[in-house]
Amino acid sequence: MFITSEELDSNLDKYLLMASAQDVFITRNGKTIAKLTSPYKDKIDAIESLYGSIPADITLEEAREERLNKI
User: Do the beta carbons of residue 12 and residue 35 sit within 8 Å?
Assistant: First the structure.
């Protein structure tokens, strides 16, 4: 979402809450000057990318042992 710096000044609480779910780009004079983003977004994306990476027919312990044996 793109907003102006004036809009951010007027509704800071709203956009801070919104930044937890999506990036908020702040513009001034038509140019992007800043971005609000969640500090947890990268961690959440990493976790979501791993979801389903362990097959359903293997236990967590077996997956761990398999990974350690590859080293």
Answer: no
CB 26 within 8 A of CB 36: yes
All residues at 6 or more sequence positions from 35 whose CB lies less than 8 Å from its CB, including other chains: 23, 24, 25, 26
User: Taking the model in full, what pTM does it have?
Assistant: 0.56
Count of beta carbons in the 10 Å neighbourhood of residue 26: 19
Residue 38 contacts residue 17 (beta carbons within 8 Å): no
The pLDDT tens digits for 22-59 are 889 999 999 999 999 887 776 666 666 667 666 778 78
Ranges of beta strands (E only) in the chain are 2-4, 24-28, 31-36
